[in-house]
Design goal:
Oligomer: single chain
Structural class: alpha+beta
Number of helices: 2
Number of strands: 3
Radius of gyration: 17 Å
Distance between the termini: 33 Å
Mean pLDDT: 65
Length: 65
């Protein structure tokens, strides 16, 4: 979910792009989505450091040789 630039109104609502669909939503949704993403990313980085695994493996992105 991302807020479309310059669509935020004085009431705190804007147009959000949700998987290609444009919907009106409160700006807080984007903030919460960003916080959830950062929490997941931090958790993956922590797990990789605890287990000594590359971040990509913990995050599920394995490169083919």
């Amino acid at each position: 979910t991302t807020l479309v630039n310059k669509t935020l109104n004085k009431d705190g609502f804007g147009v959000c792009n949700v998987s290609g669909n444009l919907v009106t939503c409160p700006v807080e949704i984007e903030c919460k989505m960003s916080e959830a993403y950062m929490h997941t990313k931090r958790k993956s980085e922590l797990l990789s450091s605890l287990y000594g695994l590359p971040y990509a493996l913990v995050h599920g992105k394995r490169k083919a040789n």
